[in-house]
Specification:
CATH superfamily of the largest domain: Glycosidases
Radius of gyration: 23 Å
CATH architecture of the largest domain: Alpha-Beta Barrel
Bound molecules: ligand FHN
Strand content: 15-25%
Helix content: 25-40%
Distance between the termini: 24 Å
Length: 419
């Protein structure tokens, strides 16, 4: 089934052949990235004044209507002494993730970087005295992982002219244009000037931003770093690639550059009592499902206030990495495969290879899939170093492959087909 392009808020540039844009080549090759939501909310970990606050952790200020003057005090306690950029980047690498996107400023307004236009940043307002984005930028350069910055361009519950805080501010008195001009643009300039080459800026929740304002942000990013990509959530159908909803996987193939941002449990920012961790096998199948439809998977971790990525996330990412170690060829740089809409099976493709991802292993030692293209000459298990050929019967409308009785990999066994 082919998903209509309208099902995803579409970056307009995608409508006119942008899929050939070489600026996205690394991003298309990557297919799998690490999202990091980290900020003062990690200190609260989902609780305010002894009460558990429902909803996603990074929204606690909004959910509990915490006054700016009280929330700000958290900064003095934020001292993530266990933060180790090398460890985070190497975890992403071991998981098979080729890019990292970290919250430079989320909706709570706290800046995880040293900003000249704000004192509400990690250098000026916390005892930590280090700039994590600087350390991550250096480490990503060293370990050859692309780095991107999430930046909340519209919602800012701390800034008097930012959008979204109706408990401290009278929104009718706010000047959003002034906020963009005197705060957002200078900060975007800092992010794109002080940290070396940046892979992408991940704007989010456009809400009230106008078309002209989105356009100006896109232009600013491209003026400062022409190769830096802009997420579709800059708003008003702009940006270099489209974004599906959070944790949303389209029903079928989408012929755009698009990405699904997703959580491992239910929150983005750390929440101590969110234990709803998806099993590693589910994460692998989601990754494959997304890639088989032409998208990227940006999978989130929410480190603690001490700077530690929760062990439950680490374990799962390492398990995904083990699978990628064996099967990465069927993911990196692939496109949506020719077989779509099959139950229990997904399909990716690259050059002259078609990868069948079998989630539900057939009984009886034979796998039959619809096939009307040029006959399949060779089939083998991607995990088989010897590439022992599996016998293949081309039936005109389908192909039948003789397979082991038991699934070699109960999560996803990849069969390579060559015509
Ligand atoms: O409001 C944010 C949310 O906190 C989180 O950052 C996600 C990630 O995609 N984006 C927004 C909701 O869509």
């Amino acid at each position: 089934m082919k998903q209509s392009v309208e099902a995803i808020p579409v970056a307009r540039s995608q409508r006119d052949g942008a899929q050939a844009d070489p600026r996205l080549a690394w991003w298309r090759e990557a297919r799998f990235g690490m999202f990091i939501h980290w900020g003062l909310y990690a200190l609260l970990a989902g609780r305010w004044k002894g009460e558990s606050v429902p909803g996603i952790g990074e929204w606690i200020m909004h959910r509990a209507r915490i006054p700016v003057a009280e929330y700000e005090l958290l900064a003095a306690e934020f001292n993530p002494i266990r933060f180790d950029a090398a460890e985070w980047v190497s975890l992403a690498k071991r998981a098979g993730q080729k890019y990292i996107v970290i919250t430079s400023k989320h909706h709570d307004g706290f800046c995880l970087f040293d900003s000249a236009v704000s004192d509400y940043d990690i250098i000026d307002a916390t005892p930590f005295g280090r700039d994590p984005l600087r350390e991550l930028a250096d480490e990503c350069a060293r370990q050859e992982v692309r780095l991107g910055f999430y930046y909340s361009q519209t919602q800012d519950w701390h800034h008097p002219d930012g959008n979204g805080n109706d408990w401290d501010y009278d929104e009718s008195q706010q000047d959003f244009g002034r906020y963009l001009e005197t705060y957002v643009r200078p900060q975007v300039r800092e992010l794109l000037t002080n940290y070396g080459p940046i892979g992408l800026i991940w704007f989010d929740t456009p809400k009230i931003i106008s078309s002209a304002q989105s356009r100006e942000l896109v232009d600013l990013v491209h003026e400062l770093q022409p190769d830096c990509l802009v997420s579709g959530r800059v708003g008003n159908t702009m940006g270099d690639y489209a974004s599906a909803g959070d944790n949303v996987i389209p029903d079928g193939r989408v012929d755009l550059d698009w990405e699904t941002p997703a959580t491992i449990n239910d929150t983005w920012g750390f929440k101590a009592d969110d234990h709803n961790w998806k099993p590693a096998g589910e994460l692998i199948q989601k990754l494959v499902d997304i890639v088989s439809k032409g998208g990227n998977y940006l999978l989130n971790v929410g480190p603690t206030a001490e700077g530690v990525i929760p062990e439950s996330s680490v374990e799962r990412l390492l398990a995904v990495g083990d699978w990628m170690q064996v099967n990465g060829e069927s993911v990196y740089g692939t496109v949506a495969g020719p077989l779509q809409g099959l139950d229990g099976c997904r399909c990716t493709a690259k050059d002259d290879l078609v990868f069948l991802h079998v989630f539900d292993w057939p009984s009886g030692g034979r796998l039959e899939v619809p096939w009307q293209a040029a006959p399949v000459h060779t089939a083998f298990l991607l995990a088989d170093d010897k590439r022992t050929p599996l016998s293949v019967e081309n039936r005109g409308v389908s192909v039948v492959i003789s397979v082991p009785q038991r699934a070699p990999d109960p999560v996803d066994t990849v069969i390579v087909l060559k015509q």
